[in-house]
Amino acid sequence: MASNSHILVFPFMAQGHTIPLLDLAKLLSRRGFKVTILTTPSNASSISSYTSQFSNIHLKEISFPQVQGLPKGCENMSQLSRDHLIQFFKATKLLQQPFEKTLEDMSKVQDPPVCVFSDSFLGWTNESCRVFGIPRFVFHGMGVLPMAIKKSLLIHQTYEVESDEIPLVVKGVQLGFTVTKQDLPKSTREADINISQFFLDAEKSDIGSWGVIANSFFELEKDHVSSLESMYGNETKVWCVGPLFLYDQIGPNPSTIWAQWLNQKVGENSVIYVSFGSLADLSEAQLDELAYGLELSGHDYFLIVRSKNWNPPCGVNGDGRGLIVREWVDQRWVLAHEAIGGFLSHCGWNSVLESLSVGVPILAWPLEAEQHVNAKYLVEELKVGVQVPNFKRDQVIVRREVICEGVKELMGGEKGLKARKKAVVFGRMAKRSVEVGGSSYNNLDKLVDQIRHMSPLEKTM
């Protein structure tokens, strides 16, 4: 018999998906739950370091399946080349058997989880949980509106149009901007049947989940929560409990060269922070143009570069106005620094939340996944950012002049100033939402209460 105090959390093996679920695990742990995090061997150490201070968070390892064509030991999206994407997705589907064995073993020792929180990419966990009579909450690594758009288009197949420029019909969703096929993830737009089918299967498997966890706050997306709930049916509730990272304080002043450099900047809002996330790879030619564009803008810049081989071209950073960093940085700390006045971003949802929560406007340069939809949402509906000028998806190179123009507009132009004012307002809302009595705090309270009073579902085995 479940004690209603044990929760199983199963993140997808990608940093942007894992970290928010670990933040949720910590919150549930603080509320008195025993939390077991299910993961694979090569992901265990990083998860353990993130949760090591929580005595009632435990790790359970299951082997990552070997799939032909996937390099041995490749158990995280950060280790992937795009050539191995479909093999990786296939391997994650093979985790269903060890997942069910884990649930079976927990039941045998009279410690089954009262519920499961699992990533949307692991959609098959919903079926497995029904077999064991365990309610499943689905976690999406994106906002409520991008979630609703994605689910509507995949379920209704309304993205199958001839032209990339035709506005799509997004059934059940009210939009403040148009969505075209060009805005959709590459896996949806192109005729890669295997990858498209993976995501379609995941979306369909989600239907009937007991609840949806949204790493967002109601004030930001109140107009879209009911739309997303309607697509799940069965009175499934969307729980806006984020931004999940805001429940923890920002860390102390890092003892690093980059932190010292930033601390020496005396002008408020004088530096633009530039990062494209943990997965994106820009070509060396694009990095050259980016560096030149930042220089031409005349603004101080803090540039994160993933490439180990690229070196700044001649004439870049000769006066020390910019800082180029190749190591991991505490992005929350950087964005919260008073010197940061803008964020040139790929518009991944975690980065969006981290920026808005401290009132920093965004210069949108989307690259993949749902980032193009996020960018339109930020620029055209929320009005907390500006778009890189004349940006076109799949263009080979974004030129330095265009980058320069975008930076100048964000940091000192009329649109940029208006975006900053809006971002500051949402930043205050975000902080308030996770405080006692705030919308996300109250939703978390209600979620915890529901979990404590859950009854097992009717088993389908």
From TrEMBL:
Presence of the UniProt keyword S-adenosyl-L-methionine in the record: no
Under Gene Ontology molecular function, one entry of this record is: UDP-glucosyltransferase activity
Q: Where is the Glycosyltransferase N-terminal domain?
A: 7-244
Q: Does the keyword Transferase apply?
A: yes
Top enzyme class: transferase
UniProt keywords (A-Z) are: Glycosyltransferase, Transferase
Q: Which EC number(s) are documented for this chain? A: 2.4.1.-
The UniProt entry's sequence similarity note says: Belongs to the UDP-glycosyltransferase family.
Tell me what this protein is called. Answer: Glycosyltransferase
Q: Report the source organism.
A: Fagus sylvatica (Beechnut)
Its taxonomic placement starts with: Eukaryota, Viridiplantae, Streptophyta, Embryophyta, Tracheophyta
